[in-house]
User: Fold these one by one.
Assistant:
Number 1:
Amino acid sequence: MDRIHVSTVVRLPSTEVYEFLKDFPRYARYSEYLTRVAADGDGSPGTRYRLRFEWWKLTYTAHTEVTDTDPPEQLDWQVTEDIDASGRWRIEPLDTDPSTPSDDGPACRVHLEVRFDADSVGGGILDLPRFVSLDWVIDRVKPILVEEAEQVVERIVADVEGERRQVDLVVHEVPGGI
């Protein structure tokens, strides 16, 4: 099972950040490859999403579902078709942001954790061009997934805080082969 785990500090209370993360359809603005998000639900358990991805000559719609929430600390999801994958947003309240003076107010560490089994992707999921193997695609997509996780977290920080700033990302885990 491959894993991606990225975190950073957000200079807001965890309750505010949780409510922001729960509004998943806005994520299409954060990714170059995520072109559309359709939701059936309000972000609580049972909410289903259809995520349209486009990369190179390939398009794919991922079907996901929110499986569990523990406001304001955790939001879990899983892919429901085609691939064994799941993830979570985890939010740890901090007394203060360790990178700023203590009078800046509440902060939290936000973690994006994703796990996936690349071997669970079947050959019929994607309409691959002639002479292109699924292994070739997977080898090229893994580094893109890590870059996307980093960019999504950076862009969420700018959006939720209301301004861009230098974000110190911690990359805890990356998929094998990167």
Number 2:
Amino acid sequence: MKTIVKNIGGKNIIAKAEEPLSPQVEKLFYLLTTVENKLVDGFSIQVGWSIFILSEREDGYHIIVPDYTKNPFKDTTEDLTIALWVQLEQVHCLRQLNIEGEMIKFSDKIVIAKNVLQLDEIYLQRSSDCDKDDSGWYIGPVNEAEETGELEAIYAYELLKIRPSIIQVLALPYEYLAVFEKDNIKAILNDNDVDIWNGITN
């Protein structure tokens, strides 16, 4: 774990994350410099998937995030690693495809076919026809014979424990579809049903 301290607007801002994510911490600091007059105890900012909150301590303002290993609706942590990793994975996927994404929050709902996340071959499809706090994502089996007709709803963050490889595609735009075989992306279809993943070297 690396601790990085930066003075922004005369205040010490403190962030902790695993060493490889230091560039993401620097980007977060840069974002905070654009709102430096708002940096007070309890200040929060939504950056893609996660919300980042300032917590004032004796040595400065610590950046904390929802704790995705516990209950992120009430538990927080100073370890920014998971929050920054998710952001990095999703941005990397969009950059490979050279497209703009559609934000998804950790607290957004995802509709899934019952027990689908235990299957090797699944697909995810995102519909714009969804309610607030709903991601628009549906996860179902590629093989229609495995379709039970029963649906469940989970929070997006729950995928971190069940099937973290899916996290990378969740910022894809509406009307896109992604196909997975185990933890590997097999195809990503755009809103014209064209596979834009084929040919990309991972």
Number 3:
Amino acid sequence: MTLLKKAIASILLLSALKANAQDKALMTAFSTSYDYEAIQKYDAAITAINTVYNPSSYEMNLRLGWLNYLGGKHKDAVSFYQKAIVLMPAATEPKWAIINPLTKLENWNETEKTYLSILKLDSKNASANYSLGLIYYYRKDYVTAKKYFDVALNLYPFGYNNMLMGAWTNYFLGNKNEAKTLFNKTLLYSPNDKSALEGLNLLK
């Protein structure tokens, strides 16, 4: 019995030492990657993380997504962020992060899907609603754009972008009174605003 206890104690000690060494290597890798990032040596920063990379680590995938994005490797960045999203499906953090490389790749369909997935987790998020409004606005789908701009506007009624884009959307929908009201409110925030003045001039 004593020998068995000693054997178990030895195994536990070795496991603890191994875990401690792994933790130290991980800390060193992340620290090194931050140092390289600070001097814009992104490939070196990526290599530092790759030396300890574990595909099931949310933190590593998120970090590699960011570093690849900074290094202009946008497809790789998307890939790592997607892995992070799978690992933490209830988190909005990687979803916001993946929008950066998706935007650089001009992948608007995936960007749209990402914003919609954020709203499933956080339906009243003003930024996601506004950004979706922009996507539909530039597609000239003003009905859908208004739906999202209205949410953002209700959350931030005196937000410059919300008022101005809400005004233009209502203008294109033929809602002249609503457009005029919002253009005038925009001028309260930004006197002599060219876009708001243009809109009011068109409504005359």
Number 4:
Amino acid sequence: MIAVEEFAERLIRLAAGFQPRPLPRRRRDRQILMKSFLLTLDSDRGYTEPEMNAAIQRWNDEVAPAIETDHVTIRRLLVDHGLLERRRDGRAYRVGFPASPLAFDLEVDGLDPRSIVAAWREAHPPRRGPPAPA
């Protein structure tokens, strides 16, 4: 079970930094990232492919700016894990509800991953080089 505290802490460590990094390999970390994306979607509606691509790009810009990836990789990962359902023609998507071996605390569903990352980045601005000599 992933509690709210672990979710927020891991999301920050994985995605909020200023140094680029690839998608994590650990399943638990990937699931935290995927859950953070799903929290940015409206699960009551469908998305066209361009809308889904834009949603993934917004997530990458606002929630996971440190993760170097593209919308195709993220979309494929979400579909492969059953977190997104894709229409047969590939033109529409909706949030899926697969049975998951990894459970999240119910309170995680009430989190705003954008706010978590934005607050951390505001409190931890990128480091600058040493001050210039006077």
